From TrEMBL:
Keyword check for Lipid metabolism: no
Domain Acyl-CoA dehydrogenase/oxidase N-terminal: start-end pairs: 39-99
Protein name listed in UniProt: Hydroxylase
Matching SUPFAM superfamilies: Acyl-CoA dehydrogenase C-terminal domain-like, Acyl-CoA dehydrogenase NM domain-like
Alphabetized UniProt keyword annotations: Oxidoreductase
GO molecular function: acyl-CoA dehydrogenase activity; flavin adenine dinucleotide binding
The keyword Oxidoreductase appears for this protein: yes
Amino acid sequence: MVTSQEVAARRPDPTRPTTPEELLRRAEDLVPVLRGLSDDIERARRLPDAVVEKLRDAGVFRMGVPTELGGPGLDSVQQTEVVETLARGDASAAWCAMIGMDTPLYAQFLPESVAREELSDPDAITAGLILPLGRAERVPGGYRVTGRWGFGSGITHADWVVAGCFVHQDGQPEPGPDGSPRHWRIMLARRDEFEVLDTWHTTGLAGSGSNDYQATDLFVPEEHSFSLGAPRVEGPHSTAEAILRNMPGVPLGVARAALDHVRELAAGRVDRAAATPWADTYRVQMTIAEAEMELGAARHAVYGSLRRQAEILEKGGEIGRDDRVDTVLARVNAFRVARTIVTRLYDLVATTAVYRPSPLDRWLRDLTTMRQHVIAQDQVLQSAGAHLLGGTPSNPFSLGIVA
């Protein structure tokens, strides 16, 4: 029997985008709006409710919802384009959009009944950390979950929260389905079932509200838990790395915004010592050209690898070692290159960059913070190299490998 909630979820909302093209246009329209609100977002240390509603009205959080469930059904390339566009307006807003739209991706791994419940609102927002920092004690019908998780980006406005755990039974670690020593499972619950802690006092991505959260003896039904190694359905979004693919959109968008800003600045600036327009100054010309070259190469690597991966998955194939690593390295490189570009532009602009209202200082702080994310750290390079050589990755999940 189809419930009224399911009918509502599948009925197109005339006020929300129903196509990728319309959603991207709405994201483009938000760029100047978000840029104008960046100071408010940073001061609030979270996305203000008005900003969340602007993103929701633009259809950002439903971008991965299939068309048959009332969403526009964007693929990973299109999702990355939307995130990249939003990042030109504000990095924290784009970061929260990138995290919050994971709801339909998690639904690929949940039982059908729970997936439908989670998607009863196509604009539902999910936040939380999937890494197994919690403990889930197996009990009849589910688990008793206790733990504390960090980096809950967007948790201040989320509907659902995920929390990674190692499963225990009778007080002892439970082996994984593949015989590994520990069983990693992800719990899903409503946000109000967790306690959110005010811990996000940072200089970069300050507006992302990436607070810690915790639970003590929280009961989570079995059907509200899942493993990224066991999808319920087949398809391009039913792989563990699906939630990682659109991440490079944030650094790419920030770097693009910084380059556009400095190019506009350079058009009317004169080197006072030499009385030479910046447009005719060698060091300025070289800095801009090198930045454009590096950003273009990084961007093409990201989108090229995503398209190759999509072609393989859409044909029902398996991602080989080189194609898997290609996407991973392009992702890490996007974070690295973006920070390098903005650092170089910051140095070029010099003292002017440290004064408000110059946005360069915030962009540099945002990129420095996001570069510390576990998916952008050097251990990912080791994992990629190990995978290519048949060795042992220190962070297999960064490669989309889950037992």
